[in-house]
Design a protein that fits this description.
The complex is a heterodimer of chains A (163) and B (113). Chain A is mainly alpha-helical. Chain A contains six helices and three strands; from the N terminus they run H-H-H-E-H-E-E-H-H. The longest helix of chain A is centred in the middle third of the chain and has 30 residues. Chain B has three helices and one strand. The chains are: A mainly alpha (163), B mainly alpha (113).
């Protein structure tokens, strides 16, 4: 898993600024140093978070496309809804603050869920505490996106049977 | 250049631009800080996403497209983190939320101000 992270970082760096120039090998040396630096940062981050970065497992990557499709559809629908709210002649909002359970096992899964909610226009995560999210929503329709638990299930599915 | 591809790119760029404008309009029309963050997220997701998608079509299967995908990926991580940080800071410092419905214990952050 850690080797996977290292390889991923190296691949990203190579893709962005590989040794394609005249001074290729000097640049390549810089790349090795910066990848090593970022990898150290990652390890420190992993320690601080108490583990739970299982997303680099091959099985999670296989589930990623389906998650991205579900994610894109949700965000697109929410964008249309909020656009409708913004452009309606009379702004009519019914803001609400709800507590939503985050049933993911890992902290990374919960953060992914919280970010999913925040990215979806119309809902935003205010806080994450004791496996519960504090979600602020613009109106009943936006709120329903979160309250029906479908996004929670999407994230659960990609989290899979980790550990 | 492929004609159909150019048209698709144009449609995506214009659509993305429209969503950016919508986000800006919402920023003005919504009435408080928390509502405005929702309008801004339209710009962040639909606006930026459609524009990047349109540019990817022009990039084709090349390094340019790989970089555009990475830009989108980083955007999808950074923009919710920033939105959350802003809203949590406002909430933690006691900026009042106008609410119609609130779960019990829901507003305990208000007391912290």
């Amino acid at each position: 898993m850690r080797l996977g992270v290292l390889l991923l970082l190296a691949a990203v760096w190579l893709a962005l600024s590989g040794p394609y120039t005249l001074h290729g090998w000097l640049i390549f040396a810089f790349g090795v140093v910066s990848v090593a630096f970022v990898w150290r940062l990652y390890l420190a981050l992993e320690r601080a978070a108490g583990g739970g970065f299982e997303f680099f497992r091959a099985s999670a990557w296989l589930r990623l496309p389906r998650f991205l499709v579900a994610f894109a559809l949700k965000v697109a629908a929410a964008n249309l809804h909020v656009t409708k709210l913004i452009l309606s002649p009379k702004i009519e909002l019914h803001p609400r603050l709800r507590r939503v359970p985050a049933s993911q096992k890992t902290s990374f899964g919960q953060v992914l869920y919280a970010n999913f909610i925040t990215l979806t226009p119309g809902t935003i995560t205010l806080d994450l505490r004791d496996d519960e999210l504090l979600v602020y929503a613009l109106d009943a329709e936006s709120e329903a996106d979160v309250m029906d638990g479908s996004m929670d299930r999407d994230v659960l599915r990609i989290e899979g049977d980790s550990n | 250049m492929n004609g159909a591809l150019d048209i698709a790119t144009a449609v995506l760029l214009v659509a993305g631009g429209l969503f950016c404008v919508v986000g800006g309009v919402g920023l003005h029309r919504f009435s408080d800080f928390y509502q405005r963050t929702h309008a801004a997220s339209v710009t962040d997701t639909a606006g930026a996403g459609l524009m990047l998608l349109g540019l990817m079509l022009q990039g084709g299967l090349s390094m340019v497209t790989v970089k555009l995908v990475l830009v989108l990926a980083f955007l999808l991580f950074s923009s919710p983190a920033i939105a959350h940080a802003l809203v949590k800071a406002a909430h933690g410092h006691g900026l009042a939320l106008e609410l119609e419905i609130e779960d019990e214990r829901g507003g305990d952050g208000d007391a912290a101000g």
